[in-house]
Amino acid sequence: MDTGFRHRLAPFVVLVALTLITACSEPRANAPELLDQAKQHMADGETREAHITLLNALQADSSLTEARHLLARTSLALGDFARAEKEIRRAMEDGVPGEKGLPILVRALVRQGKDDAALDETDELPDGLGDAVRAEILGLRGQAALNLRDVPAAETSFQDALELDSDAPDARVGMAMMAGLQRNAEEARDWLEPLLDREPALADAWSTLGDLELQTENLEAAIDAFSTAIDARPYPTLDRAKRALAYILTDNEAAGREDLSTIRSEGFGNHPYVGYVRGVAEFRAENFDDALAALQQSAEDAPDFLPTQIYLAATHHRLGNSEQALRAARTVYRAAPQSLLGASLLTGIHLSRSELAAAETILRDALAENPDVPALLGTVSNIALLRGDTSEALTFAERLMSQRPDSAAARNLALMARLLDGAPLDDSLLESVRTDGDEQSLYVADFLAASAAFRDGRMEDAMRQATRLRERYPDRADPMKLLAAVQLRNGQWPAARESLNEALELAPEDVGLLSSLAKVERALGNAERAGALAKDALELDPGNGEMALFVSDVAAARGNRDEARAVLENTLATAPESLQVRRRLAADYFADRQLDKVLDVTADLSSGEERDAPELLELRGQAFLLAGDPSAAQPVFARLTELRPESARAHFLHAETLARTGRLDRSRAELRRALELDPDLVEARIGQVRLLVRDGQMDEARRRLDELASRFGDRPEVTALQGWFALGTGDYADAEAYSSQALEDAPTTDVFITLVQALWAQGKHDAAISRMSAWLEENPTDATVLMHLAGAYLSLDQPAKARETYDRVVTHHPDHVAALNNLAWLSREVAPKRALELARRAYELVPQDPEILDTLGELLLRDGQLDAAHRRLSEARELAPDDRGIQMNLARVLMAQGREAEAETLLQMVVDGETEDDETGREARQLLATLRGSD
């Protein structure tokens, strides 16, 4: 169902022509007449004609709120979702009620992929909405949550909508989408079919049904569903590309290519999903070079879309590009470890590269889908033995024996599994092995019997049998390894080392033997020899996480942290599936506050990896928080609460991110849950105090804080909270004292900033700057402190030092938008070309921020680029229409362009908003006087 590309991603509707038509329509009717004509067009189902007429009406009279509301509706119907959002926002500002406006706004946001914005707009619905409207909005809210992979929130919204209106289309489509994601095709159809009976022209429902049929390989039905969706919409969407894929998979290549040609002409040619479909078409036609070009571009634009990665791996494999095939196959397997296709793909590529160990790691999951394949049973049993899961190994080995009772290999495997699982060896089975008559069978039976004596603690018997095996088979390493195990159990460490060294001469590339000997050497105090052996093991098996940690620990013990970390980084690059290495690296990076590296090493975790190592999710979320990105942290901690529903800390962390992103009601609920699970969780109680302060309940916050301090006053985070509270209530001396005390035990950035603010508020400017400078000597990349230091220099009118400090921020954090913007402004006189370059970088990162646009516009004006300056400042004014500074800068551009009347209008607006001691107003008056004096 989930193709990874939703209809909202890029509906390409060319409405420029409609706008041009309005400019040429002469003679014009008056605005009310045009409005009436537009209504009639809409009543007759003539949406495009209504759209053109509404544009003309608003050109004649831009104050027609009803026309603007209807224009938003026609824009939505024609697929111009950005315009629909713009027009309905303005219409609602002008008085269109939420009953009419909010559904249009939310639908436009969801269709543009602005799902967070859609959730924000619907967090609290206004009073007075009818049930049908409320159900529509809730259905759209659910779709936004589902797009963000917040399935519980989506389901709640859908259910709430259906309680209000059991036939709510958006909610029913959403429930079908959710069922499709869960591979429940029957339930999805149950949601869609009654809806389509009632509303047979509902394009969203047909499109969702097409996704479902495509997913379940009902290709002819998918073609029919997508065809109906295409016909039902007046604007093009990706449904045509999906129909093209269905055609291609039914070997109707001509129809598929015709659809691809049409959709390219409609403006979707560069869309990653279209590239994927084109790649599939070329692959099936065995045009592998063309397939590779299309798939690579698609994968570059949408790296998380797994079907592209699957075909990309297969294409590289067919072309003999082994490394590239392996990378793409790993991407698929890590994202969907339970997929037989992904497992088979990766296994096949590993086997083609003679990487048996890596292939074996994957095969066990494949058996779940193919439970009776003997080759899989034997291989997975061996995998289980290698990983120490002897019970599972025995289960698979006995299943294999039941299918292949005459197989000597099956009997040997079953005996080995019994031995390692602690089960008694079957004498009849041992005897059946011996009666095979060959020397290998006799060796296997005797070795297993000796191993059973060792396992059962019969050390004398084990020593006797192992010694005899060593004498009878001097060219085999395993008897010597068994003898070493007996010697280790008896505390004979030097003798065990000798036995292992003998075995190593016979099997110098036995990774297990090297690992065991390395551990013995370390236990005997020979760290250098231990490290060398572990390195040898790691060279033979570069993905061996245990040996990587061993080598890293040896290097760290010698004081070589760089080497210790490099070992782990190299191992993870070779074996990204090694969770033990990933855990260690993430924790080390986090301890050093290398947040970008924490985010890199915790990225792209599969659902299985999340379940096996939830601590990686916690580190990822914490890294986002410390990097100042709570919006990115929120879904991470939401997932952590799914994996650890009884973890008070998980719920607290989720509450923290919800609070920081303004979702206070949900934050309170999560905080309550955390305290229900653990009433003494100090972090949660601290969060409770902070929320009370945010809500303005200062007396209750103080009471809770005093209670917290009385019970946990020795905890540095409680002391830090006392400092933060004192700062907020104006008790700066106490804030300084508490923060200083907390910093001694917990030197965190947040606590340090509280101290700096307390010093500054007391006028201790030199002390604050001195403390920040000292902090930055130890933490030179701390962006928060650097930004505070730069701000301090600006407050003291020391622009050169501020500029130097912002430069340090940009050096360490090249995408820090605020630093880029401020540095650009401060550099306007001393380095104008660099200033313009910095402003452009900030604009590329955040093109919709009015302050960024204002800075760039003024610098463009200074550089004489008047048209570009006018564009940027006009955009800034549209985003912040009441900002008098932006009005002033735009007026300057207009004056420079000779557009004095427009400039005068803007300057008068600035003057009209003048306040006492208003430098902007005074400057505007001077410019006005200049303009009027020149008249």
TrEMBL record:
The keyword Transmembrane does not apply. Pfam families: TPR_16 (PF13432), TPR_19 (PF14559), TPR_4 (PF07721). The keyword Cell cycle does not apply. GO terms for molecular function: identical protein binding. TPR repeats lie at residues 203-236, 477-510, 648-681, 783-816, 850-883. Keywords: Repeat, TPR repeat. SMART domains: TPR. It comes from the Bacteria. PANTHER family: TETRATRICOPEPTIDE TPR_2 REPEAT PROTEIN, TPR REPEAT-CONTAINING PROTEIN PA4667. NCBIfam families: PEP_TPR_lipo. This is PEP-CTERM system TPR-repeat protein PrsT. It comes from Sediminicurvatus halobius.
